[in-house]
Amino acid sequence: MSNTIQFFNLQASLIFCLCTACTMPPVFDQEVVDRAVENGKQANEGYERSLKFVEGWLTTADSISGLLPNLVSDMFNNSEGTGRWEPHNTAADNYPFMVLTAYLLDKPLYDGRMKEILQAEKKLTSRVKSLPDIYSFSKRGFRYDELNMGQVVFGTSEYIKDGLIPLNEYLGKSPWQERMFEMLDDLEEYIKDPADVEKLYGRPDAKTSEIAHYRALIEEVNGDMLQTLSRVYRITGDKKYLDWAVRIGDYYLLGKRDLSQVEYLRLRDHGCEVIGGLSELYVTLHYADSEKKRQYSEAFYRLLDRVLETGRNEDGIFYNAINPGTGKVVDSGLVDNWGYIFDAYYSVYLVDNKEEYRQAVLKGVGKLYEKYRNYPWEGKSHDGYADALESGITIYNREPVAALKSWIDSEMKVMFAMQRPDGIIGGWHGDGNFARTAIMYSLWKSQGATVQPWRSDVMLGAERSGDEIYFTLTAGNGWEGKLLFDAPRHKTILHLPIDYPRINQFPEWFTASENETYRVVSSQQGLSGSYSGAQLQAGIPVKIEAGGKIVLSLGRL
Known about the structure:
Distance between the termini: 41 Å
Number of helices: 19
Oligomer: single chain
Strand content: 5-15%
Structural class: alpha+beta
Number of strands: 16
Shape: globular
Largest sheet: 5 strands, antiparallel
């Protein structure tokens, strides 16, 4: 046979093989596919419950203002003056996570009712420039005739840190980001310096309980501001926010108030915020001002070391409150938000390579599945579960410990079971924390990917397999839309140099980088191919038949 004939025969064989390969269905690992499908069911439950929460709470809205009450019961009794919108509660903990739920699951609701509530809140509750105060539905005005600037400052700082910062971390530019910026800038006039915060709340009598509350309140406001200012500085690049944060940092870490020696240090929420706030400033300074960070190091290590030494039980979980000066445990109850404190340790580990701090975190999650299932973090309240679960999810994002995953899955079932048929959970502003946690859990189970438009019968799940991620999409009825992948939001929205763990963040799982290229292999042939990160972020158009299932694996080229 001539060489020419041999060449053409070989060429024909190669073409045949390539064509056959293109038409043959891809082979997927069925165990991984099954886990992805199961994760999709778990993600979908979180979403369905979150939307049901929103629908339930919207039935309680004030009929005239459209604002939401602090308590469900306030809207269904005849008590005069009970219904009210509270910046530090309704605005901080409930409403923002209704917004996020609508953004992910019901865009018409997001663009309609959620934005209408924001406009009503701005118009009716702003009391000192843009700074809000408690609004009474029965009075059609502020609950208290006399202005209490301490109350306004506290409510504003809570609204920003607990409500608007988490929204901003996921949405980026939005009307809620604008609200955050305007309030923060107006707040500066009243708390430019930690001494201003001290003056706002006065000095209580010598009763220990009053002093403890007074100090925890100040620590909470300063902690809120440290977290907010550190992130807003990175978002805007405006040094005035960093300078403001440094004034607070100097107060705690350069001798004015050494938290490692105080008589009372609250480690649970409404007090622990200052530890997380100082860690955020510390990480910020690592990149922005290494000399100032060096000045802080000794005092910050002393505080963190003292808390580890005196503030944990034998399993590494933090107590509610301690006296760092004497080493005495003031309140031996265990904090539900232990992860908020561990965020600080892990952040310092990331920038200073303090391995002992990483080990403290690992010890803290080591016995959860063995000893802390169905643990009454805050009695029977869902809020304790929400904070504990978010603590676990944020840590698992950095340290994928198998037993920690099992604990999270176990405890999510406990929290989910607390929701009533009408969507309400506890009937108070903390119900928003239920949705925040459920959404965080759902995004983990889909590795950050989402679908638009969302529908309850469309289930998206994901599972990692080595360097690849499997995604499964199932639909009860025919569906057409987009499969969207997450972006590295810590870079694209916050402009952070590293994704350090922080309170109320929505962790990143798989993120598509704009300038990278990815390989997709799919059971639906038309979806297979190479995609840029920008294309994945914008979304892959998908059409699925009733009862259908699409499997795809994704990896970097």
